[in-house]
Design goal:
By secondary structure, the chain is mainly alpha-helical. It is built from one helix and no strands.
């Protein structure tokens, strides 16, 4: 009977040792992954800090371009409206479609 207990006790110790090794390996892998993510985040942060002025300049240029495009579209839109220098009713318009005034 004692031999059976010692045999099962040895198996349980081996099983516990294997569980410990698996847990240790999993934890080490998680630690390595977290360290790698931290290093990547630091590199990304440093890159953003180094290029922030360039990024801000690019965004400023994009805003300027958008303003110019808006103003150009507004000018084109305003050309679609016919205005008369005198009050009254227009009897006929002597222009063709697509002709610029």
């Amino acid at each position: 009977m004692e031999a059976q207990l010692n045999g099962s006790s040895t198996m349980e110790k081996e099983k516990a040792g294997l569980n410990y090794e698996n847990t240790l390996n999993t934890t080490q892998n998680s630690l390595f992954t977290a360290e790698t993510a931290l290093k990547n985040a630091k590199v990304n942060y440093e890159t953003l800090l180094a290029t922030k002025d360039t990024q801000l300049d690019l965004l400023g240029n994009a805003i300027t371009d958008a303003k110019i495009a808006y103003e150009s579209a507004l000018i084109q839109y305003n050309k679609l409206t016919l205005r008369s220098p005198v009050s009254g009713v227009i009897g006929s318009i002597l222009i063709s479609e697509g002709q610029e005034l």
